């Protein structure tokens, strides 16, 4: 009997399919957990980095805030070009500090939240898909049982019609025997003997008719069952095909619903935060590069001499000092 | 007397100039010291940041190294698209870690060394410029003293010639007196009286001649001294002009020699290190972005079903199971 075997095989496969979907969901939940832990830890690192940079900038800013150059800096931007570079270096560290703080903030208050949400959604979608799958499996098993039943019925009826047929054949044989005997010469037979024979022939005929009827009846039943079986067979194959090719695929799609799209959005949030940091950093470096291009001895020399006019302005020309009355 | 005053003023100015150049050098040395301290501290921060990132990546790499996905990863690159993003995130952290370590390394072994060198050079150049300045000041003071001397001489000789002239005038008056007396009538005078007068007239004439000679001599000296003074005056103004307009400017240039150029090179080293880090970081982010673009449910579904063929391959079509002899 191939059927119950195949049927059992399919049932096992359906269970296996559920296991796979469950495992997939677990792997997703695990991945999303890792992503959250990862960004939480990275946020810590960024915050610490930001704090250290801030401290560094603050330490040197405080040091220079008192100096004459800094007063100058506050007054106008006309600084000695190296001092200007120095201030821009400190500004850059400040900027980096701010940017990494922002990064950490986006991780904690946006990216991580998104992963959390996706994880919950995945679990919820899987649960729902499980209910749908259960129903689909129920229906499929019903169809398979049905198929098994109708096949059995067909086999049974077919067996019965075969046995009925053989009984009928046997009856026909006996009848022929009887007809064969009644072919003997008449003058040899006694009157009462003749009477006996006639009655037994009748009996045989009756029996033959009964078996004939029985056989036809079973034959009909078996043909009906056979057709029933053939129709169910077709229907079953259709359902199985439908499940494996459409329903199963839909089940998987259902579990995936929104997963990739949300993941995409979450990771884009991370990426744009990183790209923004990069842009800001780059702007700052360009400002410094520009200041480095403007490292200029000539203008610094000018400023230096202007800073100390008393020391560098040339004295009056010496005039002729005439002696009394001399011209 | 204006001269010694002006002279003193100039000497004070020369001293002031040295003070300014010394102060400038001290400010440069201080700035370069700050820059070294700044980069030393920033190098520490970058190293710590790099270590933390490395730890972070290592922690999650170790976690995933065991998983089935990772075996897959080792085997082929055909990963589920979200898992692929996850691995690229870890790679990016690894990359950032390496890049910040490199940054710290360049600060310590290149940038700081350069600032150190520039600081030493500035001090050395200032010392040399000081020697040159000393010589220039010596010469200038010599010229100024010279000018003072020749002016004094001129005034002295001029004074002498004036006094000689007045003495000569007086002698001429006496002579006139004598000539006036000798106009009296002759018969009143005694013979011996006439003799007396003649001798005194002679005396006066002698004195007058002597004074005449003295006067002319002094007059000549004073004119000579006056010309000497005028020439020295011109020479002095020329030297003072030369010092203030050329020598002083050269002195400042000498102190600046190579300062801006070396500073430029040092800061460019810093900038290129930062720009390199940025480029690498950007490449990494682009790789992740590409993976995010490839977050694809369809292909993942395909992979998922291939991972568990036993669960998802459709069963054989159900065939008609004929009962003995039935066709």
Shape estimate of chain A: rod-shaped
Biggest beta-sheet profile of chain A: none
Number of strands of chain A: 0
Strand content of chain A: under 5%
Share of helix of chain A, binned:
over 70%
State the oligomer: homodimer
Low-confidence stretches of chain A: none
- Report how far apart the termini of chain A are: 149 Å
| Number of helices, counting only DSSP H or I runs of 4 residues or more of chain A | 7
Overall SS class of chain A: mainly alpha
Largest interface in this structure: A-B, 100 and 100 residues
What is the ordering of alpha helices and beta strands of chain A?
HHHHHHH
Indicate the radius of gyration of chain A in whole angstroms.
52 Å
- The overall pLDDT of chain A, averaged over residues, is 89
Keywords (chains A, B): Coiled coil
InterPro entries (chains A, B): AH/BAR_dom_sf, F_BAR_dom, FCH_dom, SLIT-ROBO_RhoGAP
Protein name (chains A, B): SLIT-ROBO Rho GTPase-activating protein 1
Pfam families (chains A, B): FCH
């Amino acid at each position: 009997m191939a059927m119950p075997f195949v049927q059992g095989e399919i049932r096992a496969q359906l269970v296996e399919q559920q296991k796979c979907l469950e495992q997939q969901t677990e792997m997703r939940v695990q991945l999303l957990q890792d992503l959250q832990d990862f960004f939480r830890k990275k946020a810590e690192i960024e915050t610490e980095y930001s704090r250290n940079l801030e401290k560094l900038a603050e330490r040197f800013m405080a040091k220079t805030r008192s100096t004459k150059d800094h007063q100058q800096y506050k007054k106008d931007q006309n600084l000695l070009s190296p001092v200007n570079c120095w201030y821009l270096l400190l500004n850059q560290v400040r900027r980096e500090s701010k940017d990494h703080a922002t990064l950490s903030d986006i991780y904690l208050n946006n990216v991580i939240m998104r992963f959390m949400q996706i994880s919950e959604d995945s679990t919820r979608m899987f649960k729902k898909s499980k209910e749908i799958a259960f129903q689909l499996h129920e229906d499929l098993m019903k169809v398979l049982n049905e198929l098994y039943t109708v096949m059995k019925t067909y086999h049974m009826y077919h067996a019965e019609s075969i046995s009925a047929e053989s009984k009928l054949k046997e009856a026909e044989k006996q009848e022929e025997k009887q007809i064969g005997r009644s072919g003997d010469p008449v003058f040899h037979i006694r009157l009462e003997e003749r009477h006996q024979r006639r009655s037994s022939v009748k009996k045989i005929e009756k029996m033959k008719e009964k078996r004939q009827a029985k056989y036809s009846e079973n034959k009909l039943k078996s043909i009906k069952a056979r057709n029933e079986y053939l129709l169910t067979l077709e229907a079953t194959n259709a359902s199985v095909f439908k499940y494996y090719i459409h329903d199963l695929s839909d089940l998987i799609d259902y579990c995936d619903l929104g997963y990739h799209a949300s993941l995409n959005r979450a990771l884009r949030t991370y990426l744009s935060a990183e790209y923004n940091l990069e842009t800001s950093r780059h702007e700052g470096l360009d400002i410094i590069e520009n200041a480095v291009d403007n490292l200029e001895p000539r203008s610094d020399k000018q400023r230096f001499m202007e800073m100390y006019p008393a020391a560098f302005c040339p004295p009056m020309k010496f005039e002729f000092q005439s002696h009394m009355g001399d011209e």
